Amino acid sequence: MDSGPVVIRLPRTSYLVVIFLFFACFTVGFGDSNSHGLRDSTGGATFDVGPQTLVFLVPVLVAIFIARTATVVSADGLRVRALFGSRMLPWDGIRGLTVSGRAVYAVVEGGAIRLPCVRIAHLGPISRISNGRLPELPDATPKPAPQRQRAGRQPSQ
């Protein structure tokens, strides 16, 4: 059963950060560089376009970072994609996976390489795609959120 590569990336809701950054850049990017007044001679607001407008590159770079950063898991190995470039890690070169905090690393001969966007919940599918090269791990079981009881109410039995 070869279902093709699995791409593990940042959630699409991450692009909300780009929208907020874009609107935040308006004050700096089109702000008045004249500190003595906020209005021109006609009484209207002024907008200067100059070197400070380059601040709009920040949301563009963040959007490119979100789009590019991923880990692609396939039958051939792991492809780690970063903002600039990517690196292929064939299964034969991977000794195992290690977890440090919330980050997951692929252990290779020269050290460890961080797998971007990979979390502990992804280890089960990664081990299955490796076709036995990694130990078989079960899928993560979702843990339901704790429920709060209202004061004065007893749980029904």
In words, what does this structure look like?
- With 157 residues, the chain is an alpha+beta fold.
- It has one domain (6-34, 46-129).
- Helices cover 22% and strands 23% of the residues.
- It contains three helices and seven strands; from the N terminus they run E-H-H-E-E-E-E-E-E-H.
- It has helices spanning 15-29, 57-68, 123-129; strands spanning 6-9, 70-74, 77-81, 86-90, 94-100, 103-108, 111-114.
- The strands form two sheets. It has a four-stranded antiparallel beta sheet.
- Helix 1 (15-29) packs antiparallel against helix 2.
- The longest helix is centred in the N-terminal third of the chain and has 15 residues, at 15-29.
- The chain starts with 5 loop residues before the first strand and ends in a 28-residue tail after the last helix.
